[in-house]
Amino acid sequence: MNLHEYQSKSRFAGYGIPVPQGKVATTPDEAYAIAQELGGTVVIKSQVLVGGRGKAGGVKLAKSADEARARAEEILGMSIKGHIVHKVLVDPASSIAHEIYLGITNDRAAAQPVLMASSEGGVEIEEVNRTNPKAIIREHIDPLMGLFSYQIVKVALGIDLPRDQWRAFSKIVQGLYQCFVENDAALAEINPLVITADGKLIALDGKMSIDDSALARHPDLAAMRDTESEPEAETQAREAGISYVKLNGQIGCMVNGAGLAMTTMDMTKLYGEEYGIGPANFLDIGGGAKAEQVSAALRIILSDPNVKAVLFNIFGGITRGDEVARGIIEAYDEVKPSVPMIIRLQGTNAEEGRAILDSADIPNLRTAATLTEAAQKAVEAAKGAM
Amino acid sequence: MNLHEYQSKSRFAGYGIPVPQGKVATTPDEAYAIAQELGGTVVIKSQVLVGGRGKAGGVKLAKSADEARARAEEILGMSIKGHIVHKVLVDPASSIAHEIYLGITNDRAAAQPVLMASSEGGVEIEEVNRTNPKAIIREHIDPLMGLFSYQIVKVALGIDLPRDQWRAFSKIVQGLYQCFVENDAALAEINPLVITADGKLIALDGKMSIDDSALARHPDLAAMRDTESEPEAETQAREAGISYVKLNGQIGCMVNGAGLAMTTMDMTKLYGEEYGIGPANFLDIGGGAKAEQVSAALRIILSDPNVKAVLFNIFGGITRGDEVARGIIEAYDEVKPSVPMIIRLQGTNAEEGRAILDSADIPNLRTAATLTEAAQKAVEAAKGAM
Amino acid sequence: MAILLNEKSKIIVQGITGREGSFHTRKMIEYGTNVVGGVTPGKGGEWFDGKPIFDTVEKAVEATGANVSLIAVPAPFAPDAIFEAVNAGIDLIVCLTEFIPVQEMMRAYRHVKNSSSRLIGPNCPGLLAPGIANVGIMPGYIAKPGNVGVVSKSGTLTYEVVFALTEAGMGQTTCVGIGGDPIIGSSFVDILQLFEDDPQTEKVAILGEIGGRAEIDAAEFIKANMTKPVAAFIAGASAPEGTRMGHAGAIVEGGQGTAAEKIAALREAGVRVADNPEQIPQLLK
Amino acid sequence: MAILLNEKSKIIVQGITGREGSFHTRKMIEYGTNVVGGVTPGKGGEWFDGKPIFDTVEKAVEATGANVSLIAVPAPFAPDAIFEAVNAGIDLIVCLTEFIPVQEMMRAYRHVKNSSSRLIGPNCPGLLAPGIANVGIMPGYIAKPGNVGVVSKSGTLTYEVVFALTEAGMGQTTCVGIGGDPIIGSSFVDILQLFEDDPQTEKVAILGEIGGRAEIDAAEFIKANMTKPVAAFIAGASAPEGTRMGHAGAIVEGGQGTAAEKIAALREAGVRVADNPEQIPQLLK
């Protein structure tokens, strides 16, 4: 789960990291009041969970409170890569002498957190990694030992940080690591960390991503989720305990298991790509397939107007095919979908399950024995409906 | 540094460990008021940093508030093994079904904390160790990993704890370990941890000892030191940065280095024991021997009326003997001690130092070349003054 | 001979009386797996379907000589269960548990790596050695003894491929689900090495997915060290960048970990890569 | 040949520009010790009395080939300095620092034990190999080359005995102060083993004190493994129970760690135990 810039910076501040003393506004008038209070030039920053805000016109300077209101007016309600701006952060503008990148993330391959820094701050670290990988200094952190101060010295040396900044930098890095650990972050990033014209270090922008598996033990963080900005279907799916990601294709997929769900998506694309057809979503209903889960999943899939066909792919392992079939019929009765549905059941009691579905005589429902057959039938059905 | 029972239990409570809801009283009237508020039978417990309070009459039951006032009256001001009672803890009395010992300390040999528990609670663990060592279950804790819940299960099994108490016990042990770590304790002990007649676990008595080396980073704990109860000389020594322990002999010792200070004590006993003469104190003035340190140490030593002679034993390593000699003369001029002083200087510039001392012509001051000679002269001097 | 398990393996289940643990233990016993007991703190001395329950892994090992432990406890207890199994000297630990926080798992991982224990998982379906033992949640009937080794990050996708192999008359030596989390105890490379060394395994199927670089490492290992034919399928070719696809580890980040780069690396290593997992049996014929 | 140090030892000082570090570094250099540089974060590139200063131990090792590090930094920074030296691959780490919290030191201790580094101290006077190198704070003039190995928990008591040996014409191979803290990197046993193995060391003096059981372990080791004569002194026979005598480790607790029990154990092991440290030279004659 990603946090907004203002949420991340507020966390950082709790760990002694200097951040601008800005506030969040949801209306132009609030932006005016904050700018008034701060005095001087402010920067109005759209709070959306997507990169490239600046290029999209979502970050603007304002030299007065009136100007702040005008800029906030422009930015609030904007759509940036499909994300609507509901909040802006009004920060005092800083005079920037130098920009640094500083971040901590989990390095899967090393199974350790890694501290990353670069003297090329202000651009995305992936961009620096492509253009000038040597500019990125990496220091692994032993998860049992924590971060040692000598490692921070190594990083400061590596990015040629002026020596008069080392002490302040060290405190910021220690704070960031503590913040990373205590909040079960998957990413804690300050980009840019700036040296101001008067020689102070300040975290101008911040980004945190929280390990989804750890949200259960951080209710305060879980409560920060911005459900206003995310597609409603994703909120519903999360509440129903279903793993769902909306995509741009026409075939709604309902699968048990994440790997098989990706595979099912891939198959619709494999057979549909030449007709411009592909998966409408990733959806893993998890183990078992009770009617209420199937109903909820079906409703979520159908909430996407692009969906022209639904493909069920259930490999009954623990779950028995006949039970799954009954669950699907119940869900069908409840949701009454009008789009064609292709159902592929495999595994335990799959034949019985297919027989049950066939005898239910649902007009827009067809069964398939293999994944290949199911994907091909789904593509056919979607083509017919386009 | 040891904490009082009430201080320890209040810390424990901060880690979710159930403790009786008592309060501290410094006057009989306060004890009355607390007993009144608590209602029912209370226990009045003297707060002194020494064991065996119960046997000494420092812990008494009171069935009413009036009785509580009377018992507090008796206990406040008592001397228990030389410690004057300034405070009593008034706790509600518990009905005890079973007493358990639970403690965490640092195991030097293993270089790890060790969790100890015994079903024989309520007696000192050293006593159990002597009489029934098998009754003590020990579980080492990896300082990098922390305490695992399965270790608590092992301990619960080991002390035959009723299974319906395991969950509550586990929380208490986890809390105690967290308390031990976060407060840099050298000992965190609940003795007894009782199972009450109605089946609840509660920490009836508590003891914490804080690692002296860690006090600097725990100002809140350092502030809990009970200077009222400790000998004034020890308070003065600590403030002067001198390591001092009062003993019962006649020869005041001033030495540089802890090992040599103990050795010097031992030598006064070796040569004085047959005359009933021994060390009056342990005192390590640390590295260097500036006049102000020497003066402060001399005053502290002489504040003990038993002191009949003072023995200086300084091995000048880094410190030069001539400087030490000058420091001693300055201190002498300031303090003007009347007891005989034996000064043994060795190491760098020791001869020059002795010459300076000799030429200062201080009537009650004699020099010695070896530790043996110095100890013998000090014993002679003390004998003469007895 | 299977890898990791054999007829003498003695298996305990940590969390045997829990919802997941009890269900799968019964299935494992039905399959003929040598389950010698289970662990549930507080229930030591009781019995589960004729198998003794112990309070700690240590007690279970003492009493039964168990050398394999299946962990089927909820996420908040799973890291501790892994530490306990390691400290009790269990040789093979299989952790089913999903949703273990990554930072917890990094600590557990380091502890495992500093020990002589091997960990499979977490967030995995476990191991199935057809005809020998079933340690995990894979439906036993989908497999049959044979000479194909299967290793996968996924659950039902594995069943899909194993079932397809079985239907095609190609049995398996061992089916290993290594798990879909970012931090897992055993990698593709670890298992490929075992298959390469196992005399009964003649062919290998590897089922990967987007995210991380485990499949790239596998490709490098295969190129340098493997003599046996390998077929592969990589799930997630149609997944967008920057979004997690169910598994905590299945995410393309900063252009890294795409299906395309993994497929290219595997092909470069001489692996036959399927577009469709149902092709795997043909590719291994 | 001394133990732990030789003519090729290259020594750095962590905290070389600090109050303690700079003072003792000068003394060490005066003694002829091969100090090749020092470490003070933030002062890399500067010089201290002709020796280069580095920002990290790693940089110092790269540039100088240092294999010994003396740590002379205040307590809050000392554990980190130990970790840094270990992680930079320093063979011998000597930590002078007093007042390191015990729990911090337990963590550092475990890290050292999991590494190939050896730690002497903390809270110790360091090592003096007469005529070869002085790594610590012992006054060099008290010692001279010879065949006695000295190992001690104490500072000035060590000087006392070393000086008495030197005055009696008995030089030393190496004088080792292992430190007076409860948790120390090298025990009496560790150093006794080195003296036993060192061909030049013919006799050994051991200076213990109350608290802990390191001297009991030493007695057991001596009885089982040592062929060379050993003399000992144990400080604190006159100390009361339950009170710390200066050194954090010098405390008799629960009747354990008394001078009497240590003396008895050493005598039982054939060690000549002195009542008075000035007797040590005679006992080794």
Low-confidence stretches of chain A: none
Coarse morphology of chain A: elongated
> Can you tell me the number of structural domains of chain C?
2
Q: Segments of chain C where pLDDT lies below 50 for 5+ residues?
A: none
What is the second-level CATH architecture of the largest domain in chain C? 3-Layer(aba) Sandwich
Described by the principal axes of the CA atoms, the overall outline of chain C is globular
By CATH, the superfamily of the largest domain in chain C comes out as Succinyl-CoA synthetase domains
Count of helical regions of chain C: 9
* Name of the CATH first level of the largest domain in chain A: Alpha Beta
What structural category arises from helix and sheet content of chain C?
alpha/beta
Strand content bin of chain A:
25-35%
Mean pLDDT of chain A: 92
Report on this structure.
The complex is a heterotetramer, with 2 copies of chain A (about 375 residues) and 2 copies of chain C (about 280 residues). Chain A has about 375 residues and is an alpha+beta fold. Chain A is built from 13 helices and 18 strands. Chain A folds into 3 domains: about 20-90, Dna Ligase, domain 1 (2-Layer Sandwich), CATH 3.30.1490.20; about 95-220, ATP-grasp fold, B domain (D-amino Acid Aminotransferase, Chain A, domain 1); about 230-385, 3-Layer(aba) Sandwich (Rossmann fold). Chain A is elongated. With about 280 residues, chain C is α/β, with parallel strands linked by helices. Chain C has 2 domains: about 10-120, 3-Layer(aba) Sandwich (Rossmann fold), CATH 3.40.50; about 140-285, Succinyl-CoA synthetase domains (Rossmann fold), CATH 3.40.50. The radius of gyration of chain C is 18 Å and the shape is globular. Chain C starts with 10 loop residues before the first strand and ends with a helix. At the A-C interface, helix 4 and helix 9 of A face helix 4 and helix 5 of C.
